[in-house]
Amino acid sequence: MQNILRPFAFLLPSLLSVSLSAQEHKELGRMWTFENAPIGWFQQAYDWKPDDKWLDHARLSSLRFGSKDDKGGTRFFCSASFVSPFGLVMTNHHCARDAIVAAQGQGDWLKDGFYAGSYEAEVKLPGFVMSQMVRQQDVTKQVNESSVEAVQKQAEEQDKDHMHQVIALYQGGMYQLYSFKIFDDLRLVCAPHGQVAHFGGDPDNFCFPRWGLDFTFVRAYEGGKPVDSKANHFRWKTEGAKEGELVFVTGNPGTTGRLKTVAQCEYMRDHSFPGRLRMVHAELEALNAKAKESPEEERKLRATILRNENTRKAVQGYLDGLLDPRIMAIKQKAEADLRAAVAKDAGLQQKHGDAWDKIVAIQLEKAAAKGDQKLLQEIVARENAEQKRIGEACFAVYGTSIPPDATMSLRISDGVVKGFPMNGTVAPFFTSLYGLFARHTEFGGQHPFDLPQPWIDALPKLDLKTPFNLVSTCDIIGGNSGSPMIDKDQRIVGLIFDGNIESLGNNFVFDDEVSRSVSVHPAIIVESLRKVYAAGALADELEKQKPRPRSADGKKYAPADTVGR
Question: Is residue 308 part of a domain?
């Protein structure tokens, strides 16, 4: 096999020119890969285009958050970004829950929050890692001539300093080799109270208006010192973005099914999702019963229960999307358009034209197989082969003018800050600190609308006009949690942590009429750091790019401080 890897040379993006008055095939979304960023679309839609330097900086400032498993592998599940020159990383509190629990010892930092007032007091998070994508290469030809495993093995042999992944895009229509720098010395810097991070709990999850202070800061270290991220980090913009402003989300969406066929969606609607919901409900019932046995059990299980509640509501939202006739009508039209384009080309029709009909038959086989796992595995293997044929057909017709489905790999999504019609009225594009205290008051301070006592104590000094959460039309899904939302100048104007309930149907077709991504506003992060968490030095690092202050003798950093202990 030929030498496929050229270490230390990132291939510059192939800039796609799109001359459109409106996005074609919008139903397939806006989760663009960096190597095929739609420069023409950006220029046509927003009268603005990034250059290679802009794209490289955004890519290198963006991270994935994950953990190592017992077998030495790494599982990535969230997004993150460098937000200061000193290795400071921002992600979501709900992404870092397990890391916080693992580090807290006998304390309860998940409940009470944590702030390290000095570098020395930043707590190691063993087993957790961040990855930074440093190189990309199209290896479609090499994979088709050999295998994914062979291509990845050669990359690992040629460059042992990076982690490598061969990722199938367009269901196998294209393969990319992504290479990553790994940061495996991560330390906890600051986390808010769990209840204010997850304010509103399960009832407010996937909803907007919303008041969730869902942030956590960690720091990446190398050689025992904070990483020098001066060249690649996002600057901070406390005032955030204005309504109608162009914004971007750079993150790692996990999985979407926009290239799934109508028949596959119908199978998920009628079989997969209802079955999964029954399992999640049963698991939650058992977990809640166990948590009631003692305060210690509740403390240990709290993060797991929250994760399962999130799964339950997400799966219900996906199911509701497939039950929506409007969503399915968009799906049916998209499939009909693609099949018609394939049929116009005799070669494509002969090679791929019957794949959709075979997928239909396979869904009937899956339904009949029921609990026979061995038979299901064989059926799914055949289904995957047909999906690859459809992916190849789709790529042959549309190329990179459409984005591939999410694969937990780095993407850039464009959108605008914008409210939406809701329940017969209109949701504003942002909420304020006024609303947090109003919701606490209106529900009588009862869980999950209760505020921690330090927040109640801080009320007299807080600016209640401070923006709290905001929404945009950017295209996100699970895995985007922790993604930075940036403006054209690559300043942080939001921290993605959720979508509204209407956005869950975007798993299958993208529509931004009412679906919205939900972010933490940078202003409430700074307000809380300065006035609730006594973390002015951290706020200065964000706003003023200042390192932590040293004591008068120049040898020691300011003493550590913790919240709620």
Answer: yes
